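The authors assume throughout that readers already know how a fold can be written as discrete tokens. The format is easy to grasp once an entry is in front of the reader. For illustration, here is how one protein appears when written out as sequence plus structure tokens:
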Amino acid sequence: MLVLDSINIKFQNQSIIEHGRIVIPDGKITTIIGKSGVGKTSLLYAIGLISSAKNYTYFFDGQEIAIKNDAIASQFRKSKIGYIFQDNSLVEKLTVIDNIKLAASIAGITLSDQRANEYLTYVGIETEQKKYPKQLSGGEKQRVAIACVLAKQPNLIIADEPTSALDVENADAVLDLFRKIADDGKKVVIATHNKNIFSQSDVIYEVKDKKINVIQGLELLDEELKQSSQELIKTKMRNSFFIWYVKKIQKKTRIEKSIMIIMCAIAIAFSAIANSFGDAFIEQQTELINNISDREIFVVNMTTPLNIVHDVDENIAISDKEYDLLGKISEVDCIYKYYEFRSIGFEEKSGQAYYVGEICVDSDGLKQSYIFASDNNNDYKSYSIVPYYEEQHLDECLQTAYENNENVDYPIYLSSTIAKLLNINENANNVRLTINIGIPISLYKTQMSVGENKDQYDIDIDMSTMHTVEVEVAGILNDSKVNTYSNSGSNLIYFPYEKMEQLRDSKLTQDVEQANSWKPSAYMIYVKNYDEINNAITKIKNINPNFKTLNQYQDIQSMKSLIDSIRSTSNYVIDIILLIIFILMAIIQMNGVISRKYEFSVLKANGLTRIEIMKLVLADSLFYIIKIALVSFILTLIFSLVLNTLFAMDVIAIDVGTFIYVFEVSILSILVPTILTLYKVNNYKTDYIMRN
């Protein structure tokens, strides 16, 4: 038997039952009657453990149930109670057969289609199993609801006005089913106004004046009934249940959900495109600026009183310690020595100055020698071999490139000025030069006097060894390439830095034992990014106050501002799109979840806990997250392909990061509004929802 004692129930802050008691025997039909509004339905909710009121005691077969514990009460509803509500106890999005399977699954019972059909046969329905509840008549719905209850195999069956919307024939059929169920030993409780049910009831209670009165069957209640202390069998919902339920629900809502997926996926794809476009464009523009801007800083130990920053022979060498400090500057990418092989200078062996250099030009089988001397009154005074570095991209500064130099290991370039002096033009072929130069191998420390006051300055003089080198010319530089680093003029021959190092190293080992005493007075430094130049220059000058820097730093602030503006605009567009996505999905999800509150209440009445309802909705959301993410990524690929084709360049870069971005946005756009909505739904009171 079931006993509820000390029943106190309020509705809308008004007391409707006070100090009530009700006993429900096994194998009998117990009916609750009373006028509308006296509390019949509220009493049923208390019996069914879905009432918001918890101030009563609940004994089931001699076992007290902790009704204030949601997990225990839910577990009891799963295995012991079957509820038939007044209007509809069915999930509208599931077929008749799936509703029966759902009820059984909640109770931990697995039903085959055949067994589910047997329950339909039991309640008098033969051919409706594939239909949805909305396709059934009122009588058919009630009988299917009874079949669902029977599938749970409960001990207690509760029905709220089960015949109120039925004609006499259907009402009698439903009543016959209840009698049949009671005769099988079940507890059956019915709240009704139907007088025909009164006549077939074993026990009748009337709710009147806030009291529960027995008006029939008192003698049954007074009999000594066998008390049972059986333990509650716990039913744990398996993950497969949630997956099964979600698949069934989504099958019914496939069209509207597909529209939602496509709408959300398009929005996410656009945001991913905007994000990838912004990143790709900014990366391309930054690379472009790094290429077109001069990231090099020319550092000179300016110990001589010159008005311009130049590397001159008299500057003092930079020490090893200072070189190490330069290399430790965080903005520095790489650092190279700067020095020149000059046609005038001081010879290391004799200590005497040399003033004359010769270049022999061999072009198309014709040879011609040119003498450069410092005492000449024309342009043939001197020449220098200067280094160029990989970062300078001299091959992009050519006015003439010779195509017959594929096998040249070290491309040699001429300034336009010396090319004219050597009568080398763009029509020449197989241009080879034989050059006499001095290679610095040691330093000579001395002093020099400067100015009217004869101020004394310590200086280092490069001491060189004479060498003849034969090279093949790879091209002639355009007029824009000028010498800004030294006072050697514009008669320049550009050698790769590695080639000059190779030549100087060979002279060090062959000609001078103490050659390692030579050190450069200038270095060429390359920073990592164009916007780090100023920071690097500041740190360089802090190493030695004599350090002077030269940088062909272009005024790229406007371009940098443009990139920053594009970045800000891109982020703004992305934020707007994401906001629209979240608002759109919040509205869709909140409406979708809230519209299912009756469905969730039915599930709660059948025993699902708040946590299990949340798992159910989260499982539903997970399916859509995966679908939306996949569709979004496919659309992103399509959009990027179209845009890259239209622009004929990779303006959109799609990578793993893009997929992660799409998946993250998909999660947030579905999960966040779902969780917020679930919090609200789980705070709904089941009895209030079912009543309305």
Summary: The radius of gyration is 47 Å.
